[in-house]
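Retro notes - structure team

What went well: the batch runner handled both jobs without manual restarts.
What didn't: labels got mixed up in the shared folder, which is why I'm recording both outputs here explicitly, each with its sequence directly above its tokens.

Job 1
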Amino acid sequence: MHAKHYTKEGNVAVGACCNENSKPCVLPSLRAAERQMWKEEEVKEYLPIEGNPDFISAAMKFAYGKDMDMDHIVAVQTTSLPRGWTFLSKFWPHHPIYVPNPTWGNHIAIYK
């Protein structure tokens, strides 16, 4: 890590952060978002199997650039990355799979 100016730092690259006792903590921004959801009485339902279309669109623009022609890119929102890559390798062998940079540290290892 570089110069430390914030005393409550964490390694968010892995999607988790811990307090000074190495216990998981929730970021203040997430707490604020939860309070807003409760205030608006928004429910926390499971997403449909294909995910949230607005989130997927925004994520693709973020990952590939807003000027990328999205007509030839397909994306789904899933927590089952290994199953997805297994499916693609079985039914679409020898085709490249493009992963955004940066990506999670374990994605390349899972793919290989």
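Job 2
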Amino acid sequence: MYAAVVLFFFMCLTATTHAGTHQPCHAPNMTGFMSVLSLKGEIKALGVFTYESMGKKLRFRSNDSYPTNTSISLDLLMFFEEGIFYKIDSKNQSCEKKSLQSTLEPLDIPDDATFLFSVHTGTPSIEGEGLKVKVWTGSMPDMKGHYSIAVTTGCLPVSTFYFTESTSFLFSTYDVELEIKDPDLLTVPSICLGLPVEETPEGTVNSFLNEFM
């Protein structure tokens, strides 16, 4: 499986048939499930997410009902546009407020992404047995890596690959609904209000991706 993923990404990086007329689309408001898998075979997290397109806000809460030996328990509230995020621990009533050095989002295509190609997963010849996706890619200078994101024709993210010098991750979404079911999830919890932004150690690149490393 993992060799196939690497091969797919290599195809994305080396494709030369993209057209210059394509412009990155942007994901709509969404609620759904997300999994994070390292290409070493480790399930890093399984959980639910809420995403607001206009404000570029993301809440991700891993589901402790499905623990694995390698999974991480996380509750993250990301404000990508503001460059701030919160690590929330409701059980212990604690919170950390940090700055983002990389605002790359796992659910949205960056404006400077390069379109590679459109492809059908499954088969387009049988109704309901295929899905057309558009593949975009780009670099992550702050993290010395590249990304590749596949979205539907309506710009729903299907999967995002992150490849860095030290590790690689696959983010996948499931059972996505085009609404924000609970807007309160995208507001700062009371336990986080009034906190100062923590100082970022030299050489650290805070990002959504880094929380799974």
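One thing worth noting from job 2: The chain has one helix and eleven strands.
We'll revisit the folder naming next retro.
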